[in-house]
Specification:
single chain, about 575 residues, mainly beta, Ubiquitin-like (UB roll), 4 domains, four-stranded antiparallel beta sheet, 6 helices, disordered N terminus
Length: about 575
């Protein structure tokens, strides 16, 4: 018997009445590997096996469906001379009707003759654009698989469209099977159509974003070759502006060579208000809120106002922040956003009081072909007043924060960011450089288990500790650094006075488990070291904490409750943290 020649399925069923049809065994004689699995998957009769079937109509319907299903599965693997016979109590199922079956069949047999696997003979797909070659699977002598035909034809059409023939399509295919030689000959004409160029963009739906702004944000290169990539890039730019719920770009009507581009857009709601809250026994009550306008003046300008209160009734004072930021997309070219920001911050804790006012203006570049990457730079002028037991700092500060980040997190993945901020201060301390490296990752193991990790290094180079601008001093302790310890409880001792440090190493890890329903659990460990020098060493103070938590997915963000205790560098005790969103 030739390989894959015969496939028998013996289906034994019980008589009708009050009992169900018995489960059956599907035995595929001579079939191996993927072909055998494909036939099982394609068989409706095989799908009845684990079920309690009480109707003969179900058996007959499944049998009739199996003719097309099994033949399709065989032809998808190049068996174009296959034959399928299905017998119900010896009668061919294709000639039976429900009225012919008064009771469930006693014997069901499926007999399949797979026949030989065909190969491609003559393969004529074209014309093809210069430099394009059909895939190896669509060559004479290769297994005649329909999927390879579809893949090759679509690749040829895509190549023409990438060359500016946006209306390229396939003509009527002609297939000829030579059963004597077991060969399939194919002829698929490709109709390239004309080569078109990018024309003006115009919306087909009403939008509060003006047409000139749409054109500037989309960044379509008018006069360039019209390709799917050009349309895709323009759509991505419009979506990331945040002003639209959805966007589609398509070529308009015309015979060319220049085609207008039609934009079908739906605006997002222009205004949004949000808030957050959290409570920790070490940090106190934290409240924050924001107002967002997505299209301030018809150019998709984003105005964001925010305010926050933190440390309420926790460490002898309330920290407060208020700020505003205006961002304009397509400020310089389609991929550069310009922004201006002003922020006032007041910090009060047992060690110091700080009042800071900063004004910032800068640019943000996001390459459309690498949307996970982002680069930004700004010029910032700030006025800082800080009073602590060590020194009274009153500085004007001119700085230039620059950053680059990669964010590939989407339920899993990694985040990496590096920022540097050279600065010049008005005091005799002169210039310096602040920098930070931030690495984060989220990995999934199976359906329910995940591991989140954070590693962060912050440092200030240049002035000594007493002359370091207050905004760059670092601490550890609390919900955003090491849980289980009091807020900003870890600093450094200089001249017998505790103050913030010039460098910090922070590491955090969480093992997260998805529980039944919307619930989740986690186990975490946090560790940090703070140094008075730009480079920490092993003699610098450190502390750590660990704990467990539970969360509930509210639909927009998880509501978390964490319980933590110090492990090193602090007194024993228990701290509670309640908030919205993951810890990092």
């Amino acid at each position: 018997m030739r390989s894959l020649r015969k496939i028998f399925a013996a289906l034994v069923v019980m008589a009708m009445g009050t009992g169900p049809v018995a489960a059956f065994d599907l035995q595929l004689e001579g079939a191996q590997g993927d072909l055998q699995n494909a036939l099982y998957d394609a068989s409706r009769l095989a799908g009845l096996a684990p079920q309690n079937v009480t109707s003969s109509d179900q058996v007959l319907a499944a049998a009739k469906a199996d003719y097309a299903g099994l033949l399709g599965a065989l032809q998808a693997r190049g068996h174009f001379a296959a034959q399928v016979r299905i017998l119900l109590d010896g009668a061919s199922a294709d000639g039976l009707y429900p009225v012919d079956l008064n009771e469930a069949p006693q014997n069901v047999r499926v007999l399949i003759q797979a026949g030989p696997q065909f190969q491609f003979g003559r393969v004529e797909v074209g014309p093809l654009p210069a430099g394009f070659a059909l895939p190896q699977g669509l060559r004479a002598g290769a297994a005649a698989l329909p999927d390879q035909i579809e893949t090759g034809v679509q690749a040829a059409i895509a190549a023409w469209r990438d060359a500016g023939h946006i209306r390229a399509r396939a003509g009527v295919p002609i297939y000829t099977a030579d059963h004597r030689r077991n060969v399939l000959n194919i002829r698929v004409p490709i109709v390239p159509g004309g080569a078109f160029q990018v024309g003006e963009l115009s919306p087909s739906t009403a939008s509060d974003v003006t047409t000139p702004a749409l054109q500037a944000i989309a960044g379509l290169p008018t006069g360039a070759a019209l390709t799917p990539q050009v349309l895709s890039d323009g759509q991505k730019r419009l979506v990331r502006s945040g002003a639209f719920r959805f966007v589609t770009l398509s070529p308009g009507a015309g015979r060319g060579p220049v085609l207008p581009i039609t934009a079908n857009v739906q605006d997002e709601k222009p205004r949004r208000i949000g808030f957050g809250a959290g409570f920790a026994t070490t940090d106190g009550l934290n409240l924050d809120g924001f107002f967002l306008h997505r299209n301030l003046r018809g150019g998709a300008e984003r105005l964001r106002l925010w305010a926050s209160l933190s440390g309420v009734r926790a460490h002898g004072g309330i920290d407060s922040t208020i700020g505003a930021r205006l961002a304009k997309p397509a400020f310089i070219g389609s991929d550069v956003t310009g922004f201006a920001q002003i922020e006032a911050e007041q910090t009060k804790d047992p060690l110091a009081q700080t009042h800071d006012l900063s004004v910032q203006g800068g640019l943000q570049y996001t390459p459309v072909d690498k949307a996970a990457l982002q680069y930004g730079g700004a010029v910032q002028l700030s006025r800082t007043l800080r009073q602590d037991a060590l020194v009274d700092r009153r500085d004007w500060l001119l700085s230039a924060p620059i950053y680059a980040q990669m964010d590939r997190r989407n339920g899993r993945g990694v985040y990496a960011a590096i920022s540097v901020e050279p600065f010049v201060q008005s005091s005799r301390a002169g210039a310096g450089l602040s920098g930070q490296v931030d690495l984060r990752g989220l990995w999934r193991f199976g359906r329910r288990l995940g591991l989140a990790a954070l590693a962060q290094y912050t440092s200030v180079i240049g002035p000594d500790l007493t002359q370091t601008p207050a905004r760059y001093l670092v601490y550890s302790g609390g919900a955003s650094t090491v849980r289980g310890h009091d807020y900003n409880s870890l600093g450094v001792i200089t001249s017998g006075v505790e103050t913030g440090g010039r460098a910090r190493i922070l590491a955090r890890g969480e093992l997260r488990v998805d529980l039944p329903g919307a619930w989740g659990g986690n186990v975490f460990y946090d560790w940090a070291r703070v140094s008075a020098q730009a480079m920490p060493d092993w003699d610098d103070p450190f502390h750590s904490g660990a704990g467990i938590g539970i969360s509930y997915d509210t639909g927009f963000a998880p509501l978390r409750l964490d319980i933590a205790t110090p492990l090193a560098g602090g007194d024993h005790g228990v701290a509670l943290y309640l908030g919205i969103g993951q810890a990092f």
